[in-house]
Amino acid sequence: MRRTLLLLAGAILVLIAAIIGRMVFQPGPYSFAGGTEVDLASYPNGAALTGVPAELASTDPRARAEYVTRMADCEACHTAKGGKPFAGGRPFVLPFGTIYTPNITPDPETGIGKWTDAQFLKAVHQGIAPDGTRFYPAFPYASYTMLTDADVLAIKSYLFSLPPVKQANKSNTFGFPFNQRWLMGIWSSFFNSDRRFRPIRERDAAWNRGAYLVEAAGHCGECHTPRNLMQAMDQHNKFAGGQAEGWNAYNITGDRTSGIGGWSDAEIAAYLSTGHAPGRGVASGPMSEAVGLSLSKLTPSDIAAIVTYLRTVPAIRSDRLPQPAGPAPASPKLASIDNPVGKRMFEGNCASCHAWTGAGAIFDEARLTGVRSVNDPTAANVASMILNGAGQPGTGRPYMPSFAAAYSDAEVAAVANYVTARFGAKGSSITPKEVAELRRN
Amino acid sequence: MPPVPESEGLTRRAVLYGGAVTAGLMIAIDFPWGAARAAPVSNPEPVATGQRFNAYIHIAPDDRITFTLPAVEMGQGVYTSQAQCIADELDVALDKVIAAHAPPDQANYGNPIFVVQATGGSTTTMAWSGPLRKAGATARAMLVAAAAARWQVDAASLTTENGVIAHAPSGRSLRYGEVANAAASLKPPTEVTLKDPSRFRLIGKPVHRIDTPDKAIGKTVYGIDVMLPGMRFATLRSSPVLGGKVAKVDQAPALAVPGVRQVVVLDDLVAVVADNSWAAMQGLNALAIDWAPGANAELDQAQLWSGLEKASQGQGAVAKKEGDALAKLKQGTVFEESYELPYLAHAPMEMTNCTVHVQGGACEVWTGTQVPGFAQTGAAKVLGIAPEKVTVNNHLIGGGFGRRLEVDGVIKAVRIAAHVDGPVKVIWSREEDIRQQLYRPLYHERLKARVEDGRITAWHHRVTGGSVMAHWLPPAFNDGIDSDAVDGAAEVPYAVGDRLVEYIRHESAVPVQFLRGVGPNGTIFAMECFIDLIANKTGTDPLAFRRRLLEKNPRALGALNLAAEKAGWGTAPPASPFGARRGRGIALMNAFGSYLAAIADVAVADQGDVRVTRLVIAADAGKIVNPNIFEAQIQGGATFGLSAVLFGKITFAGGRVEQGNFNDYRVLRIDEMPAIEVHIVPSNENSGGIGEPGTVVTQPAVANAVFAATGVQLKRMPIDRALIAKGA
Amino acid sequence: MLEFTINGEKHQADVPPDMPLLWVLRDVLGMTGTKFGCGIAQCGACTVHLDGVAVRSCQLPAGRVGDRAITTIEGVGNTPAGAKIQKAWIDLEVIQCGYCQPGQIMSAAALLASNPAPDDSDIDAAMAGNICRCGTYVRIREGIKHAARS
After folding, report:
1. Sign of dihedral through CA atoms B18, B20, B25, B27?
2. Through-space distance between the first and last CA atoms of chain B, rounded to whole angstroms
């Protein structure tokens, strides 16, 4: 008996160790590719894999520095809604409290104006502030650690070329034990390799450039890879879908149903560079920011490199996303949907742009059928979209206003469920309470 | 100058509307501008030749008849109802008539109730039907006299019908146009006999509106549709923070937009002038304007509410005192409650716009305004020129609701146009329109009543809020009392015993203006909710309770009983898929010289969303000029009230308005519209107003229905779903 | 230079392709019957027809119109459904200020053309995107039914 218990206890320990081990000992972000990692210097023309693409090599230094900053998309997180660019203050609501991004303009008092190159490198590569305190990994240093010193310092030079903005940083609202920043040192020892990018010798330059853009600069996995209990990216499920501020960041592996395996290269490229691929939907929420502030600024060669790299990520099927439904009927009446509040919302606020067929009444960007968010039975992104809207009015680009202020949780939930039922593969049943949760982001 | 018909019973410097002329709230005031005659008509005559008989009627030799109408058409149907009054007395058919808005000319077109030339307060019919009928009858008498002279016959032997004068004994006839010149040179008769109502062909009849056919085909030119040769288009952004200033702006990004011609930077706004509105908007979007927010950067809604509440605890100026209410309220069964009304934006579908051409020390303005005189003097003041140098071309208005009683849009446009070479049309975006206007004041209504034997024996109503009258018509703000803010409270239809009605003026940084329903939107809302509260707390049926207080007020009782009968008071409200909890509410209002009762049915969802499922309104507004328009005004007023009570609120955070467009400033849509039944009490009383009562009476009826459905009486509008969610 | 067919006539306009059709109609071609109400496709005042389908012109980039035929309030009376709706609007005195009505009429005409006997739910579905602040909703509903019966 005692022996059985011991055995059992041992087995549990082993299991726990295995789980922790699997959590802690993560494969490298692109080790799926196999091959041999080599120093940049040993790769033919390895320097061209980092920095700006060849076609921009002769532009002026500030333009090159700006391009690298765009590659790393610093602005999105370090700008508050309606605030000055790079002056920080944007809130991120996490399970343990709210964290605000800091001011990274060169203001000497409230920004990073006094930072040395070494301090900046240490912050970006290791997540350690000049005073020695640790940053939370909401700052994606586990990805940025792969950036070359030259690129990190290019970013610094760009930031230092901006007008300083005097805006004090807001402190986060984490309670114990999450307010213990030193714990991040332990986290880093597990999850931050503190290693610069090393290309794979067997892969071509486009692939390696893509890997650098996706893994180091673009930090795509920070949202698209699910996180483990330690809030680290679970590379075992690389790009199988994660979360960002209440939005589902969908599977971008090569799986044909739940990933982007069915998308053509041109569709992926269009989506990344314009935020829209006809028939595939629009980038919304955090992804629309990534497109607007970063990906849309990249050269076609860089977009092509990203596509090349993404194509090689192993397919993972996530059962959450079914095969999208086809077009909806033109007639508003659908006996199968009993949702009067949802219909009322849709006909008043949505049909003008989206159409009763879901094909988009004015432009394809408003298409609902075939779009992953609409076929996502959690309806998280549909509801988030209704709450947040997308784009800016009066620009000549498609725009969707936010309906958060004037419509109740019940109304938003109802119309989200109406949309998924009418245009998706499987109706959702998001609740007013869940909508209330989404509002907090 | 042609003769001006005197408005019967109202002299120029005598009376001011306090909302309820017939209810007796009349305030004698002195106007600084007195009875000074304004400049002669600066607009070109609508028809080039012919004769003007008086300020309102012009007849051309080819029989085209032009009416110059003092009240402005903004949807309420007064183009038609005013024309009906003139045309009936003049004996012409409406299809012969061209209607035109009056130019700024207070002497001729000043509203007999307001004195100033303004369209509002639901006053058009009560103010103008008499003078306009007299003008029509006078012109007809002159035409008849001229024909009689030509034929050498007795005027009494002539008859008129549809623009033709006939002499039956001789079989001769003349068209009005044929004697117009001769008639206009005659001395107008001092006395004319108005038609006996039995002979009305137009007045009291549901004749078709004269403005509808053009509106149905997109031909009507609103202010926003004005097109002039060489015109530029502009749009503007004012400081997002109330009262802020432009600190710095680099114009280059706007000027780089194709089609942009000019950036006008003023102290508080930036405008972009371009070849078309779209280019102007793109230019404006391209600018990164640095604003100096100024003193209101921290202003927020909670602070505005608490400031108001605090102010309401003070002592008010006495608007009405009968007996000693305060003493009586010190003992016995006393109820007390306060109700609060939010800031509201008008959000008319035609956003603020104004076209201006400044040149050679003169200025021409094209816009739609409820106050052409204010537009003229406002523009003149900006430019430092005499008002006569400003021509105002008024237009049909795409929804007023009080918004165009202010000329802030004209003034901003003139300030911009002063820097532009040639005519420029300034259009506000919807966001600018909602964020930069003046708002319906925040109101706090504190009520206290003593109940003895099921009757109210003492009543105290204290109104606290910003004063519109104080800036809009300073002479109407007397002894610390805004006559509009206490309208509906100073005189009440109910027997409430000893009464004290007070007003406390409390201004915040937020500018305020009239909104459809004006003061009674607050006073009557509060009173009707309070009456329901007392009925509820004394275990009395709300209808029965009101009837008891109306024994001596047959008109009010008549409207109330008709509504109750038609609504089936006492039966269950209809079931609805929009909510399981159901309720029926009643409200009564007496203001604007009219009596309306409304009964609303609601369904309330578990989470607190409210659906109005049916609305029954009974109205006694005295004599009616056009029953069809009358009904439309009640339907429309009620719809406006539904938007307000269900959704309407403008709130401030960081000194900025938080709403901006119809996605966050929600208004009722057709699929949220309940069935409305309008029942008219036949009446020979003086005409009351009908533009606003529907708005006023609907809001408390809905609030009382929600109270009945949920057992929760909401004290602050609009309806807060969280407070009536099931189990809240 | 973009080319449009509006109410059966060809028009040319030298405008950027992202300029919404609304402003091409109003400011460039001077057809002001189509109204600016919100700029974000939430009010319907700018509704026109593209090949008979109601579309909000404030959000429609001129460059995306293509060869679809545009019908505006100035021309909708030449279609059977449009003429019926306009007549019903006059018969029943639907209109108050009239500013939203070009859009209301365009939406109603498109509804009637595709559905000759709309019920209340159909009317809600087709008309809820058109805001009226005067409160003509009750009569719009009656007007559509009246037109359908005629």
Report:
1. positive
2. 68
A340-439 matches A205-310 in CATH topology? yes
Pairing of strands B390-394, B362-367: parallel
Owning domain of residue B697: 303-343+440-724
Residue of C nearest to A389 (CA): C40
- Spatial CB neighbours of B380, under 8 Å, sequence gap ≥ 6: B363, B386, B387, B389, B390
Pairs of CB atoms within 8 A across B/C: 172
Q: Looking at domain A205-310, does it have CATH number 1.10.760?
A: yes
Residues B184 and B71 in one domain: yes
* C-alpha–C-alpha distance, residues B23 and B29, integer Å: 18
Yes or no, beta carbons of A410 and B669 under 8 Å apart: no
For residues B353 and B226, give the distance between their C-alpha atoms in angstroms, rounded to a whole number: 10
Q: Do C40 and B661 touch (CB under 8 A)?
A: yes
C-alpha to C-alpha distances, B77 to A348, B122, B207, B590, nearest whole angstrom: 28, 11, 11, 22
Task: Please indicate whether, in this complex, the C-beta atoms of C56 and A399 are within 8 angstroms of each other.
Answer: no
For residue B13, tell me if it sits in a domain: no
Nearest chain A residue (CA) to B643? A406
Predicted confidence (pLDDT) per residue in B247-258, tens digit: 999 999 999 999
Give how many domains chain B has, as a whole number.
3
Helix (H, G, I), strand (E, B) or coil at B462: strand
Residues in chain A within 8 Å Cβ distance of C129: 347-349, 351-352
Q: pLDDT means per 10 residues in chain A (441 residues)?
A: 76 75 79 93 93 95 97 96 93 88 96 97 96 92 96 98 95 84 82 91 97 97 91 91 92 93 96 94 93 97 98 89 85 91 97 95 92 94 96 88 97 98 94 95 79
- What is the ipTM for the molecules in this complex? 0.98
Task: Give me A297's structure tokens.
Answer: 């600024």
Residue B35, in any domain of the structure: no
Architecture of domain A340-439: Orthogonal Bundle (1.10)
Domain ranges of chain C: 2-71, 76-149
Distance between first and last Cα of chain A: 52
Q: Are residues B560 and B697 in the same domain?
A: yes
B609 → closest Cβ in A402, A403, A408 = A408
- DSSP states of A225-272: SPB-TTS-B-GGGTTS-EEETTEEE---SS-TTTSSTTS-HHHHHHHH
Q: What's the gap in Å between the CA of B278 and the closest CA on chain A?
A: 8
Q: CATH assignment of C76-149, given 3.40.50.300, 1.10.150.120, 1.10.220.10, 3.40.50.2300?
A: 1.10.150.120
Q: DSSP label at B355?
A: E
Cα(A308)–Cα(A290) distance, rounded to whole angstroms? 19
* A394 vs C: CB within 8 A: yes
SS3 B357: strand
Locus of tokens 């016959």: B153
Would the CB atoms of B75 and C96 count as touching at under 8 Å? yes
Question: Could you tell me if B337 and B394 lie in one domain?
Answer: no
DSSP element (H, E) containing B307: helix B301-311
The CATH number of residue B380's host domain is 3.30.365.10
* Pick from A348, A344, A385: nearest CA to A365: A385
CA-wise closest residue to B699 among B718, B715, B677? B718
Topology annotation, domain C2-71: Ubiquitin-like (UB roll) (3.10.20)
Classify B363 as helix, strand or coil.
strand
Instruction: Tell me the C-alpha distance between B522 and A195, whole Å.
Output: 68
Query: Domain ranges in chain A?
Result: 51-191, 205-310, 340-439
